[in-house]
Amino acid sequence: MENETTSISPAEVRILKNGPILIKGVFNFRDSSGKITSGEQELYLCRCGGSASKPWCDGTHNKIGVPD
Ligand code: FES
Fold first, then answer.
1. Does the domain formed by 12-64 have CATH 3.30.200?
2. Ligand 1 pocket: which residues have CB below 6 Å?
């Protein structure tokens, strides 16, 4: 049997300049309906308030800007 090494990257949260909030890494995410996604993922959350598919960023911030 081979010796396996498992590395788990911690989740990273970044506020992107003039853009969304990026959450990247291994984590659980529960949306407002209670649906949970788990594991390694990369999510972009809207922080401009203009996305038509909240909580996800749909690129609208490029038109309306992001308040800082
Ligand atoms: S931050 Fe991208 S649509 Fe709101």
1. no
2. 19-20, 46-48, 50-51, 57-61, 66
